[in-house]
Amino acid sequence: MSQPPHHPDDLWRRGPVWTASERPLARYVARPLREFLHVESAGSVLLLAATVLALLWVNLPFDGWASAYDHFWHTPLALEIGDWRIEESLQHWVNDGLMTIFFFVVGLEIKYELVHGDLRDPRTAALPIVAAVGGMVVPALVYVAVVGRGEGAAGWGIPMATDIAFAVGVLGLLGRRIPSPARLFLLTLAIVDDIGAILVIAVFYTDELSLGWLAGALGLLAVMTVLRAARVWAIPVYAVLGVGVWFALLQSGVHATLAGVAVGLLTPAVALLRPSVATEYAVEGLRDNDLDAEELHRLRFLIGESVPVVERLQTRLHPLSSYVVLPVFALANAGVALGDGVLGEALRAPVALGIAAGLVLGKPLGITLACFLAVRLGLARMPDGTSWPQLVGIGAVAGIGFTVSLFIAGLSFPGSDLLTAEAKVGILLASLLAAAVGVALLLMSGRGAQNGTAVASSPDASPRPESTRQN
Predict the structure, then answer these.
(1) Of 37, 160, 201, 206, whose CB neighbour count within 10 A is largest?
(2) Which of 170, 67, 188 is nearest to 123 (CA)?
């Protein structure tokens, strides 16, 4: 990403949006919303397959399979350079290391939405933000009400999360029965939900804090900020600094995956060059119908820098996160033995019941109640073409809390394999039930709409353009 020769400073763009004449190039290089939803939907299939494989691995009646699962994922793996050494189990490397990529992609998506997406417009973002808050607070309260103050109380954060991949995948099964604004509502809600889950992990699931290492991580993030201001755009430099932030957070006691979120939020979401620069250079270079190697290299650079770094990294890493990272995470964490009465005991356990009640009942209740109050008070308006029954169904789908819920479950009960297993059983069954309930409610609401049911909206609702993510 080094600056090309003879590149005048006035070509670098800091703030203004593209003009109408510059949009044709942007249309070819920008990542539309439908690509993000397609990757999430396809990734949900692999995520489901990995979950089923993990459960089969542990529960099939073959001698040694269950112990082989535990032995494999608890195999120690060390990274050693001179006198410096880190040794963790393979499962910990997946949860603490590989999942950093997932959280980095989440950080990139949050940054994009804040700059270009629905979170940029307060009026559009108001409803999903309020809904996400209600969908986090109410499930946590329901869990506490069911579990009480016993040894399982630490799991209150588990039912707060919404799994974007599975939730988007479920809506994808319903096709055009779900209005496009309703899909955007769920996606924005899930993104805000991720922000809440990240804050919960950072604040409430950090046992011991080393201020020295934490200061080191913050110092490296400050260095990255200074380099951005100095127009240093070499991605390898930021990759090295990002690894340093990850290691410092790992040593500080704060969960290391939060390094991915922090670096993602620092990634530039505005293109470094005006798209017209590449267009003009291409027109000029092709006057003789020929491009030499140097001109081609320069044109590729100009086109690349006409796209925000956030979008470029998302395009490269989002498939990796959805197709590799999350399935591997599910394979490493979803293997729970269900035989010998374990399933029956888990279903009676307060932890599993609290998670199920929080995800299946608390999520739709919190989301619907928060939306009702926001619309009634005039703070927000309903998504265009979306009825209240559909909103309840979307709230039920948001109760699919698989990935991040499993992640928080692993942090909630570090000293109890039994409670962790009960939590995983609760998450798996609750997510399955939430998906079934959500689909049923959305199908019924769709039939109601076809039979003439009025579409609910706020009194001042008026047509508005789609999100900037759609092209």
Answers:
(1) 160
(2) 188
